[in-house]
Design brief:
Blueprint lengths: L3 H48 L4 H18 L32 H6 L12 E3 L4 E8 L7 E2 L3 E2 L9 E15 L7 E12 L10 E15 L2 H4 L6 E13 L9 E13 L2 E11 L12 H5 L2 E7 L5 E8 L5 E10 L9 E9 L11 E9 L4
Antiparallel strand pairs: 1-5, 2-5, 2-15, 3-4, 5-6, 6-7, 7-8, 8-9, 9-10, 10-11, 11-12, 12-13, 13-14, 14-15
Helix pairs in contact: 1-2
Length: 376
């Protein structure tokens, strides 16, 4: 068993040794702290000394030495991240949207022949010119419309020579890349109305309205077959079927159905198209509103269009039998020269047969003045 005195002495010795160790640690920390505090003062003095050194290379070397010394005693600060938040990551710039460069070909842009001009299905756009002509002057008025199977109409309103002409025409692609490479199927609808706008005495009636739905299969010409002499290019072929009628009761009812083929060519600002039609005959003449319509309107149509700049013009010829047929000239120019795709002035000159179905066998000369309604 140990003595209590001996235990007490031992305890005092242990305490003295621990105190000595603590004092040594405190002294060492004080020395380090003094050195760290004194360092910036020394660095400031050394930097002041560097300021007067010459040449420039010596002064820069002095600054580099002081910067190296300061880097050894200065620790970089660590970024503080708030609890619950992630460190911000550099953002990758969003990729710019890819914009297709349209083709230089007018027919390709109009019918979406080339890949860069494809715009998908079920978008609607203009087909034939969409125009409103409040001034449409006729040389003669067909006051006794007739046909071999429907006879002659009587007791018509007192139509005037001056009226308004309205045409609305839209189309939409319903199938893309079908049956043949790049080939598309379109549907279209055109409505043309003759409105006796300036005839309030007869309550300004619509003299005639023609309705024309159709389906068009468009095939782009393979690149190997396009080039032709004199700078022309064969750009497309079409197959179509069309119904046209005026929706009136007998004896004013007129209608016919056709299938057709089109070849389209272009050369710089010129577009040339050839169209060949075949009428789908009715079962009997009694069911045919106008059995002789082909004699007056023919089976072919040739159109030459020219768009050298802001203006556009087109000449359309339909040769008929024995001097019949028709010739039509269309011209347009932007109302605002800086907005050629906006509102445009429109002029139309027609001579011949078939400006309307009701007048398919009546020779007419007319002049129309107005504006386009939609971009076409």
């Amino acid at each position: 068993m140990h003595s209590p005195v001996q235990n007490n002495s031992s305890s005092r010795g242990s305490f003295q040794r621990a105190s000595a160790r603590h004092l040594a640690v405190v002294a060492a920390c004080s020395a380090l702290l003094s050195q760290a505090v004194a360092q910036p003062q020394s660095t400031a003095a050394d930097l002041q000394a560097c300021l007067g050194l010459q040449p420039d290379s010596a002064r820069l070397a002095c600054y580099d030495r002081q910067a190296g010394r300061e880097a050894m005693v200065t620790l970089p600060a660590s970024p503080v991240v708030e609890p619950g938040t992630a460190e911000a990551q550099p953002q990758t710039p969003a990729a710019a949207p890819v914009v297709k460069q349209q083709s230089d070909s007018f027919l390709s842009r109009y019918w979406e022949l080339d890949d860069q001009d494809k715009r998908g299905t079920f978008n609607y756009t203009g087909y034939r010119p969409n125009v409103f002509m409040p001034l449409h002057q006729m040389r003669e008025v067909n006051r006794t419309p007739s046909s071999p199977t429907r006879g002659q109409a009587a007791s018509l309103p007192k139509y005037k020579h001056g009226e308004a002409k309205i045409q609305l025409s839209l189309r939409s692609k319903v199938l893309e890349d079908v049956l043949l490479p790049g080939a598309d199927l379109w549907v279209a609808y055109t409505q043309q109305s003759m409105w006796q706008l300036w005839n309030p005495g007869e309550s300004a009636p619509f003299r005639n309205t023609d309705y024309q739905p159709e389906a068009i299969f468009v095939v782009p010409t393979p690149e190997a077959w396009r080039n032709l002499p004199l700078g022309w290019a064969w750009r497309m072929s079409q197959l179509g079927i069309v119904h046209q009628s005026n929706g009136q009761p007998d004896p004013l009812s007129r209608s016919w159905n056709r299938v057709y083929g089109v070849l389209g060519f272009e050369r710089q600002d010129l577009v040339l198209s050839f169209r060949l039609e075949q009428r789908l005959e009715k079962d009997s003449d009694e069911r045919d509103d106008n059995p002789d319509i082909v004699d007056y309107l023919g089976r072919t149509e040739v159109q030459l269009a020219w768009s050298p700049g802001r203006a556009t013009s087109a000449l359309t010829w339909r040769p008929g039998s024995s001097g019949k047929g028709s010739l039509q000239y269309d011209w347009s120019y932007p109302v605002n020269k800086e907005r050629p795709d906006g509102l445009r002035w429109y002029v139309q000159l027609f001579h011949g047969f078939g400006e309307t179905l009701l007048d398919y066998n009546f020779r007419q000369t007319s002049l129309g003045l107005g504006v386009t309604i939609f971009k076409f």
